[in-house]
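Posting for a labmate who doesn't have an account.
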Amino acid sequence: MKSPLRRRIAAVALVLAAPAAAGCTNGFDAQTDQPYQPAVGVNDQTGSVDALNAAIVSDTDGIGTLSVTLLNNADQPDQLVSVTGQDLTAQFSPIELPTDQLVDLSKEGQVAVSGPKVSAGEFVTLELVFRDGGSKEMTVPVVPHAFDFGEVPLPSGSPSATQ
């Protein structure tokens, strides 16, 4: 039979070892201390306009819709005036970006894009140009018109857009 002193030492050792066993000694680079984006699209929060969850939605190789939420953090309204990329064309009218309001481009299918790399599973590098807020370059995934992106309107000429 163990003495009460030995039992107390064993209990204290167990209590002191619990944090190490629980993984609390991962240091400052543990995943909980890093930014995490639980989404398919990409974010760019540099500059005065944030681009959130950016992706291109496509069900037909070569054409798709830019799905992105923009947030103008500046003191004055702005506009998205151009979307360009290598071997990529975009068709849309300038899009107003009021101050401190989310503008979700996936709701209306406002920006139709086309190009050889617009195919589900690919990545496309885009440059978003704003009237007053400069520009930002992003490499965005091309995702299928399904699941979370199944409600995004597709450009006319796409088979799913005419059904």
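Reply:
Got it, the structure tokens are right above this. The radius of gyration is 24 Å.
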